[in-house]
Structures are given as structure tokens and as C-alpha cells.
């Protein structure tokens, strides 16, 4: 049977490997505390669930790809309150089925090899979906490394001739996996380069609402959104991963292209999920409570790491801690040492070659499980 060579080259999705390894350890009778995948485990708040149930119809048709106008207005209202961004709900916003599918398929919308726009830039270590989507779209991919201390891309590493071949430049801050935050100046520089060289600057901001000290900036704060798109989601902000509800916002021409493209792939949240999303975007109290939970769990681990001399790098935002592995160990070796004791973390090398020397710890188990996991770290160090 023929199989896409791009698919063959991808290998197993890294978090599927993690889950398989954890299942093998659990089968040996060891309790697993999963700090590997960034999947919030807290309940979606009652008012969100109630809004979904109230919107369940007796019959349900296909959702429109452009989403409910009420949801687009709710998203626009949130963008205005949070970032001071004035967006037209009709022309600058489109709801999506979470953000993963929209990120994966986006290169198909903007890539144009016939005009020489055949290249996509991603950063690494990072979320693998932008690169995987680009390769399935047939793009050439340039990887920019993120390195300590700030974990920001060095744009000067992109060769002069490559800028004119770019169709798409992906940025992700607050960053998965490093937890780093980017300054607004980086967004301004990339937006200027996008306009000068005719590519799309795409900002994945899934973790924009999970921060520990001060709110991070957004590309939506730019004065000019020409060539700029922002992807966000309720998955992390509102612990609604299973609801699959997000949005893309920005340049009206790009949103128009998405409105043309998305009916072909049929990916929009069900109307009852969109109704629940409306109330979620309209409330900040539950987000503040979520931030406090992650802050509390972070402190549990930081106390142990400070005593044991394990360095925490980046980690200013998101639900992750980015940890340097002890001297003499690789990221996989340290992750395996912890896994044998029942704690799952993601080896940095799973997320890109520049992630070697680190592991990513997700603050998603409950407080008591985090305390047990911290005790296991203390024993393993």
C-alpha cells in the first residue's frame, strides 16, 4: 500500500512515545505521575459546562467554517480587553477546532512555490506541529535554534537570500517548551521583515494567559497587522483541551484566505462548543484561578530544585518548567531515571536537537501528585 514519504519520515509523534513508555512502567506496578504532556487535568468550570449543555440541540447540522458571529464578537471583545486590539469580527477573526489543526494546515494556505515562496521558518526546540504541517505542504524548512539564556531566535542566522523565499515564519511565545517570553520588539521586527519580504508572520500564542510575573505581550498589540496572524485557544487558558476551540486573528487578507480554505477541510467547533466558548472568553476569574494553581505547583518544584542545585532555565510562563539535566546525563537518560521511579517528563531532545541537555516538566498533576513527584526528584538527584 502506498504511504506518503513525508509521513514515513516523520516517525512516531514524540508524546505517543512517552505514553507508550509510561504504560510499560505502569504495567510493572509503579504509580505513574505524568508530567510529560501539557494536557490540563482540572475540570472545566461549571459555568462553561452549563453553557455547553444548555446549547445542546435535539438535532445538529454542520457548523459553518467561519463560526458563529456571536463567537467572533466574543473573541474580538477579549482581544480588545486583553491586548487593546481593535479587530473586526467579520473580517479579522475565524474560529478553529482548537489551534493544532489550524497550525498544521496553515502552510497549505500561504505556500506558493510557483512564485518562489517555498520556505517556512520554525524554531526549535518546539511544538512539532508547525514543522510537520509545513513538510506535508511540501515546504523547505529552516530551523532556528532557541538557546539560553533568553531562548529567543537569532534572526541574523537566516541568510539574506532566504528571506525572499519565505512564505511563513512561525513564532511561539510564551514558548513551549522553554517557558520563555518574547519582548514586543521581536514581534515588531518580524512584522517589518514580513512586510518587506512578502511573507506571513504567524504567532502561536496558546500559552498567552499562563504567566507567573506579568502578562506577556502579543503580536495583536502591533500597530499594523498586515502580514500578521495570531493563533490562540481555550485549551490551556480555560483547561478546555477536549472542547477543541480556538481562533486565528489578524490580517484581513489572510483571514479571507482561511475562510476560502477551511470549508474544504470541515474543521469548526460544533455550535454547542462555540456557545460554551463564548462564555469562556468572557470570563477572567477562572483564568486567574488556573494561573494560581500553576503558580502553586511551580513553587513546590522550585523549592526542591533550589535545594538540590537543579537549574531551571526560561520558565517565566506557560505550564512548564524547563530544567537542565544533571552533569554527565543526556536528556533521555535523566528522563528514563525519573520514569523508572514513576515520574514522566519530556526529554528536551524529543522537541528538537537544541533541546538536548534539558527536560520539560508539565505542571498538570494535582498539588498532591506534584508533591510526590517533587519528592521523587529529590531522591533521584
Structural account:
There is one protein chain. With 381 residues, this protein is of the alpha/beta class. It has two domains: 5-43 and 285-380, Alpha-Beta Complex (Aspartate Aminotransferase, domain 1); 58-281, Type I PLP-dependent aspartate aminotransferase-like (Major domain) (Aspartate Aminotransferase, domain 2). Helix content is 41%, strand content 15%. It contains 14 helices and 13 strands. The chain has helices at 5-10, 14-26, 46-54, 69-83, 100-110, 129-136, 160-163, 184-197, 234-237, 252-265, 271-281, 285-308, 331-339, 367-380, and strands at 33-34, 93-96, 119-124, 140-145, 166-172, 200-204, 228-233, 246-250, 312-313, 320-324, 343-344, 346-347, 358-362. Strands 2-8-7-6-5-3-4 form a seven-stranded mixed β-sheet, with helices on both faces. Strands 9-10-13-12 form a four-stranded antiparallel β-sheet. A hairpin with a 6-residue loop joins strand 9 (312-313) and strand 10. The longest helix has 24 residues, at 285-308. The protein is globular. 47% of the residues are buried. The mean pLDDT is 94.
Amino acid at each position: 500500500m502506498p504511504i506518503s514519504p513525508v509521513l514515513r519520515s516523520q516517525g512516531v509523534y514524540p508524546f505517543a512515545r512517552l505514553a507508550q513508555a509510561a504504560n510499560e512502567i505502569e504495567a510493572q506496578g509503579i504509580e505513574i505521575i505524568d508530567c510529560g504532556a501539557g494536557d490540563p487535568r482540572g475540570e472545566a468550570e461549571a459555568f462553561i459546562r452549563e453553557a455547553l449543555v444548555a446549547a445542546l440541540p435535539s438535532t445538529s447540522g454542520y457548523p459553518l467554517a467561519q463560526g458563529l458571529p456571536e463567537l467572533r464578537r466574543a473573541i474580538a471583545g477579549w482581544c480588545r480587553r486583553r491586548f487593546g486590539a481593535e479587530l473586526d469580527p467579520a473580517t479579522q477573526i475565524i474560529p478553529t477546532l482548537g489551534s493544532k489543526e489550524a497550525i498544521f494546515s496553515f502552510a497549505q494556505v500561504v505556500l506558493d512555490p510557483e512564485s518562489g515562496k517555498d520556505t517556512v521558518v520554525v524554531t526549535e526546540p518546539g511544538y512539532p506541529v508547525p514543522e510537520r504541517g509545513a513538510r506535508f505542504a511540501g515546504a523547505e524548512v529552516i530551523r532556528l535554534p532557541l538557546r539560553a539564556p533568553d531562548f529567543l531566535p537569532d534572526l541574523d542566522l537566516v541568510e539574506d537570500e532566504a528571506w525572499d523565499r519565505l512564505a511563513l515564519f512561525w513564532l511561539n511565545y510564551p514558548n513551549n517548551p522553554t517557558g520563555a517570553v518574547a519582548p514586543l520588539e521581536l514581534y515588531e521586527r518580524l512584522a517589518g521583515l514580513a512586510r518587506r519580504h512578502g511573507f506571513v508572520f504567524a504567532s502561536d500564542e496558546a500559552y498567552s494567559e499562563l504567566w507567573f510575573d506579568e502578562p506577556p505581550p502579543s503580536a495583536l498589540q502591533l500597530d499594523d497587522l498586515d502580514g500578521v496572524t495570531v493563533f490562540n485557544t481555550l485549551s490551556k487558558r480555560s483547561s478546555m483541551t477536549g472542547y477543541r476551540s480556538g481562533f486565528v486573528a489578524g490580517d484581513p487578507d489572510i483571514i479571507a484566505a482561511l475562510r476560502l480554505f477551511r470549508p474544504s477541510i470541515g474543521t469548526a467547533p460544533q455550535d454547542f462548543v462555540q456557545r460554551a466558548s463564548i462564555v469562556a472568553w468572557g470570563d477572567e476569574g477562572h483564568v486567574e484561578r488556573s494561573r494560581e494553581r500553576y503558580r502553586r505547583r511551580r513553587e513546590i518544584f522550585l523549592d526542591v530544585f533550589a535545594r538540590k542545585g537543579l537549574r531551571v532555565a526560561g520558565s517565566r510562563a506557560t505550564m512548564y518548567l524547563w530544567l537542565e539535566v544533571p552533569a554527565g546525563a543526556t536528556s533521555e537518560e535523566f528522563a528514563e531515571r525519573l520514569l523508572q521511579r514513576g515520574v514522566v517528563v519530556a526529554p528536551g531532545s524529543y522537541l528538537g536537537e537544541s533541546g538536548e541537555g534539558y527536560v520539560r516538566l508539565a505542571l498538570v498533576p494535582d498539588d498532591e501528585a506534584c508533591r510526590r513527584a517533587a519528592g521523587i526528584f529529590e531522591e533521584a538527584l
